[in-house]
Amino acid sequence: MIGDVARRSGVSARMLRHYESLGLVRPTGRTDAGYREYSGEDVRRIFHIESLRSLGLSLREVKRALDDPGFTPSELVDDLVRQTRERIAAETELLTRLHRIGAAEPAGWEDVLRVVALLQGLGSKSAGARQRAALSSVDEVPVPVEALVEAVLGESDPNVAGALRWALAHSGDGGLALLAQGLGSPAAEVRKRAVQSIAEIPGGEATALLRDALANPDVAVRRYAASALGARGVADAVPTLIDMIVEEANDVDAADALSALASRPALADRIATGLVGRLAHDTVDSSARRRLTQALADIPGSTASRALAELSHDEDRAVALTAEYILGIRDAR
């Protein structure tokens, strides 16, 4: 009887009647009293139905799978895999959003709604909306730093990226660990955005990350880190800054950073020696030697002055003239 089958199968009597109405399972017969009778085969079919339903099949798909001799499951299984992945992605996104709302520690539903609006703004297709959300994240209910890091590492619009970096810098150093992971991304643009963001965050922890970035395999990361460290007065940046002058990669900024570092007497001779050493290198071409000579202009001290005096007699006429001109300016000071 239907009650016995319901107990044995774990399927409610109401659902068994629904299966029967759809033609999924039919009782073998009825008793004299009119009760449904299910055979062992009927019960096995009920278990098969439940097994297929557990995979996410609709009842129509279950009926087709059980009744169609020509049914091949591969296409349906592939479709189920795709649907499941999409569902997992959607649920994961929801879980992430809920965690971020919780991390903002909202005091009430108004705060929750503001956080949701800001998170939606950060994910908007409109660059203007993303920028407004980034700027608002500082003044309104704070957006969790994880959301800001995710946004800045994926942002291609320079204005929005600038606003996001500004917001990150005002949120403290909580995002540095995530930005450090960004430095190891396989995507060059993500690595670049990570180091740019770290460069705008003050404090010793950010400086330590920038020092580590000087050894990054990505030359662009090394250059951004060196420029930022030069502005922070960190001498470790000197070799990379000199490389930038030689390679004509943001060489003006690199020369300015060296000049700022050389304002510390302890570093002036070290920087001048580094520049002179590269000038003497056989692999450095004429234009690079001129840039190195120009960089000596703002390096104080006797080492730089002696180097310029020697360079004023250099075989390369352009280098000699550059050194002579710089010496004239230095003598006039």
Automatic annotation (TrEMBL):
InterPro entries, A to Z: ARM-like (IPR011989), ARM-type_fold (IPR016024), DNA-bd_dom_put_sf (IPR009061), MerR-type_HTH_dom (IPR000551), MerR_fam (IPR047057), PBS_lyase_HEAT (IPR004155)
Keywords: DNA-binding
Record keyword DNA-binding present: yes
Key word DNA-binding present: yes
Residues of the HTH merR-type domain: 1-68
Record-linked PANTHER family: HTH MERR-TYPE DOMAIN-CONTAINING PROTEIN (PTHR30204:SF93), REDOX-CYCLING DRUG-SENSING TRANSCRIPTIONAL ACTIVATOR SOXR (PTHR30204)
Name of the protein in its database record: HTH merR-type domain-containing protein
Organism: Streptomyces afghaniensis 772
